[in-house]
Fold this protein.
Amino acid sequence: MVGGGHAGIEAAWAAANRLGTPDSVVLISIDASKIGVMSCNPAIGGLAKGQLVREIDAMGGVMGLIADATGIEFKVLNTSKGSAVHGPRCQSDNIAYARVAQALINSRPEIKVIEGTVEAILTTDADDRQIQGVRVSTHGQEIELFAPAVVVTTGTFMRGLMHMGAQQTDGGRFGEQAATGISKSLDELGFELGRLKTGTPPRLAIETIDWDALPVEVGDEDPIPFSELTPAGWQLGEVNCDRFPLIEQITCRQSSTNSKAHEIIRANLDRAPMFTGQIESQGPRYCPSIEDKVVRFAERESHGVFLEPESHESSWVYCNGIATSLPSDVQDEIIKQMPGCEHAKIVQYGYAVEYDMVRPHQIYTTGQTRSVRGLFFAGQINGTSGYEEAAAQGLIGGVNAAMLAMQGDAYEGFSLGRDQAYIGVLMDDLVTKTPREPYRMFTSRAEHRLILRADNAPDRLTPIAKELGLFETTELGRQRWGLFEERKATLASGRALLDTLRDGEKTLAQKVLEPDYTMGELKAALVGELGDQAVGIWRTLHSDKRYEPYIERQRGQIRRDRELEHRPLPDWIDYTALSSMRNEARLALEKFKPTTFGQASRLEGMTPADITLLSVLIKRARALRREAAPQ
């Protein structure tokens, strides 16, 4: 595993769960003390991202466990809407988060950590390339590590370049060096590289803010954990989560920019790297810098800023909403205009970072690259943004890397469908679309979101993880499976009770269909029969019954689409030779090389008519191939 960020952690953990033998996984990090560091926002989850964390947990990953153990404010977003779009989120203690992540990695005898930078990817020279390993520069010497599978999770470090005003510094994160050799190696292997940009806001010293004068942003009164293990408590290595929340909770504060701050920004756009041409790559549209907001939304006189304490162990406060790469003196002036921050001191200035990525049409939905067998990419190297998207890819890459290492030539790969998980939506979107900006998961990207809810992630994915062998090698995994079986039995009992227990003249099943009948009322009606269960049980019982007709309609559509979705496309077809197809369609097919008709139908430029014609042409090409085959 190349890289110790959120993707690297999940990749190493998943591979260790699958392999189960000492020193079977090597995690290479430039600095082992930075494994699990939260580079930007000290938070986990959110809209659609919370679903990803729940899915990672359901498959035996650790992001949810670490978030539960280090969360200092928990809040489910979007609760005014239906449960399909609820977004679990927590503000994390970022110092504790990295410490717990490192403790968990160090607790696994299967994982060996090596400090160093990967200078080259080693492959065979044949046309049918296969991975051999990596060349690592470590503590002044170069060594070669050989393995049947390599997962690259380099985050923002590949040729990372940080910008603050005219100042440019090599590095993927403040105070840390960039990784340059690996970009050169991937380029030499023929991978098409791209360039993306992200940014981070300034951090303030909390003692210099008029904290008590600002409006309070509070978390949920009854916090809901990410992990199924947390309510029962869990222990691994040095980490013992025997209660929840584990550490003292905090409150955030609200501030905002104003027209004076916007005037300062407009007056200094000639010093903003985004507007001078110094930064050429595209940043995230959904999380723009404050200078971009001021230009794009010129009619707005203010933008909200959430002031979020980063840790119990530091005085730093994260300014959520004003990512910037403006010079430090301009940042000082902007902060002074914010209510409560008139005398605030910046302890770390905001900056932007540009970095290399690999165009993800060059990977399969397993994370494995198309051109080098055994080489996998996960995280921001694939053009995504966010801890959760990275971790989800890391889990898929780690599982598949371990499977390939164990199965050799028999390996066929594992992936999730769009109807199974947000993780499936993420991986499918990456291989069928070219990201022009860092990709972020949204609920709107999931056409089956009604059945991909945060509350039912274990029901969807834990049996799959069990079949993959992800729970067999650790006590924690066996505990996960035991809790799932308890959940399954409880849900079965609860569903039976819905049809038999009555509330007045109606059964509970009929009452749940009433618009105003809440989950709390359902719990009150059933708790005497089922006992006091985790909130996820009540949410699943309530949502499954309330949306039952719509869920069945969606499942019916999935069944109807399944033949097209999973119908394979041959890997030998020359799409450029299909002259009867539109040129735009041929170019899209040749570039992305979809593995199924379902993927082909989602490519940029493809129409239903193109898919119908493609089906005819593939059938004809297969017949000609059979005729030409030697008898």
In short: Residues 475-500 form the longest helix (26 residues).
